[in-house]
Give the backbone structure.
Amino acid sequence: ALITLILALSLGLTLGQTKIKSTFFSRCEKFKEYDCQKLWDAFQQAYVNKDPCKVPVEAYDPLIAAAPFKHQCNKTMFWSKTKDVVHGLTAKRNDCFVTLEDTLLGSVLDNLTWCGKEGSNDTFTTGCPGWSECVNNPVRSFWNRSSAAFADVACGNVTAMLNGSINTPFNPTSIFASVEVPRFIASRVKNLNVVMVIQKNNISNCTDPSLKNLRQSIDTGITFSCKDVSESRIQECGSKPEIACGACW
Ligand code: AVW
């Protein structure tokens, strides 16, 4: 029985590792111009053989350097607590908007969990620390590092979709507020256009006090706007390619 258990455990480990590697490669190969093996190696060096609570954001510097984000002037789309509606839109309207998860690194690692372990060269997909269990965990550090790099190349007209169905649409603890907004500089970013996603039972909108904080925290040279837009209007823009980008809302 013990041998069966050990076999089952090591098989499970091997399968978990094979699965994340094959997911990484199949997603990566959709982007033709990259060497996916090189990126996998750069990815692994960030967390392999390390305590999964001791992976700082800088551990991903080589990975970001191997697949730098390109300037997508006037198309960059940020979001906070609006993941599904935003990706529902960008999946169909990449001509208008590009999110971090539409880029190579963001799409390859979206919705995945991974970590390493001291004394092992394996990648684990179970038993990894949760998002808030420790700050320097492999997944959280990756999203913080990649969000910073993504915000660094934003330029021109920048859009952010915030959620009108929560109390604090611009939350200081979010990645958007703590990592991305502080990197917008007036020499690169001209306008920050917030789209407040309004559902049937919304509890906040563009008049929310947290939006005043956002307006005040950005560079004075950046023009700020906020527009309340119904979720159905956003979905309509995704389903009707004939709608011009500038007329989505
Ligand atoms: P979010 P952000 N447990 O919707 O502004 C697990 O709050 O922070 O928006 N995963 C988590 C947790 C948690 N407690 N909190 C956050 N995440 C992960 C990159 C999870 O993957 C883009 F460019 C969730 O879907 C956006 O502009 C994601 O973080 C910006 O960062 C976003 O959480 C959105 O970050």
